[in-house]
């Protein structure tokens, strides 16, 4: 592997946890690339589990726009399982989190619902 000279080096963008990057265009606009399909599949796969979908819904509909893990733990599974599912939702880019003292607060990643909605918009 060859090294890049200083003039050839490119600065990569830094992604913030709270900034959603649109995954892809609406499905009716053009076929998805392999990379776009991978990112989109990861989001939908994460939501394909009923417990994860319920957790996502609880957080998205919470009155303050964010929910403490203590507010969303009653979904019929153990606390370690809730944590596992929240981790999967974060890894898929659907949630962000912030630790405050002993609690972790989750919120839907900005624009993620709008991005998913736009992807599925079948109107031309």
UniProtKB/TrEMBL annotation:
NCBIfam families: HTH_metalloreg. SMART domains: HTH_ARSR. The keyword Ribonucleoprotein does not apply. Residues 32-124 form the HTH arsR-type domain. Keywords: DNA-binding, Transcription, Transcription regulation. This is Winged helix-turn-helix transcriptional regulator. Signal peptide: none annotated. Pfam families: HTH_5 (PF01022). InterPro entries: ArsR-like_HTH, HTH_ArsR_DNA-bd_dom, HTH_MetalResp_TranReg, WH-like_DNA-bd_sf, WH_DNA-bd_sf. PROSITE patterns: HTH_ARSR_2. GO terms for molecular function: DNA binding; DNA-binding transcription factor activity.
